[in-house]
Amino acid sequence: MVLATHDPVTVPPTPYAAGMNEGAIVLQGVTKRFGDVRALDGLDLSVPPGTVYGLLGPNGAGKTTAVRVLTTLIRPDQGHARVLGLDVMERPEEVRSVIGLAGQYAAVDENLTGRENLRLIGILTHLPRPAVNPRAAELLERFELTEAADRPVRTYSGGMRRRLDLAAALVHRPPVLFLDEPTTGLDPHSRRELWRVIEELVGSGTTLLLTTQYLEEADRLADRIAVVDGGRVIAEGTAAELKARMASTTLELSFHDARTAADASELLRPLAGSPPLVEGTRVELSVDDGQRALIDALRDLDRAGLVLASVALREPSLDDVFLALTGRRTSGGGGDDPDGDRAQADRGRVPVGRKIG
Ligand SMILES: Nc1ncnc2c1ncn2[C@@H]1O[C@H](COP(=O)(O)OP(=O)(O)O)[C@@H](O)[C@H]1O
Ligand SMILES: [Mg+2]
Q1: What letter does residue 152 receive in the DSSP assignment?
Q2: Which site among 188, 264, 330, 354 is 20 to 30 Å from 161 CA-CA?
């Protein structure tokens, strides 16, 4: 990927209207109802300038509603929302001039080419005319869309559309960027590609609020994470803090018979933070360092002559986090996505056809 180091895609945050002593993005006690549904129920949030903040929650948690309030698309019923110190209800025009928004559903025009889409947005956001074409070309290059630039967007893959949507949100160099579930529904390859693009962006001083249903995504991209459920924050901290508090890696072992599983559970007990869970021929160990535990377990089992059927490392998913925080599973989380957390866990599974070693 070509980086335009001489001409950054984003600019440093503009001076705050309300001084530098508050977050670049602030929600205070924000509520929003749709009929009987309480979409936001006193949401509080403060995003330090120049950081990436992850809003993590299952379907229906209120993530999109929060983003819509902050991007002036809907008015909250109660509470305050400010972006760079600008109140979204009092100064919506100014707020719009400092933000970019890319959503779960790409907002680009299917029948225009990628380049035409970006030019159009350049004109609509009042870039100086001579700057429009170079800006479009620069963003196309940056998001690896130059080859496809002059094809209609309807011929683009899902990943390409999301990249174009993200490019579109950056045309006017907003210091504050909102990404609403940027990778939901993408295949794993496109997801990783988009992560890379987002990681590059955030080096450049942009304040980014990102919503996601994937713990892995928030973990990888966000400096801090708020877990949202029922329109309010139920936990907040760095990814490491939250994971330490809420869930650990699971080493899943299965054996050909229950007797061996019981023996293995006894043998491997010292590797786990808590007593192993044994279910028939399966044993689950809750461990801190998954890689280390895997190596130790294979070695110990081999020495004891206990034969494995399969082994897998499962990183905590949003579902695990929720279970730990609320005592219940997410109802809709990842349900609309065939490549959800469960599928990711399955990819770590390694079948073992013979005795190790
Ligand atoms: N325009 C709307 N009309 C009615 N209900 C809505 C509307 N927008 C959102 N909701 C409801 O508000 C809740 C929160 O939705 P949303 O903010 O989209 O959640 P998320 O983005 O976390 O999936 C859900 O129960 C949703 O059905
Ligand atoms: Mg949403």
Answers
A1: B
A2: 330
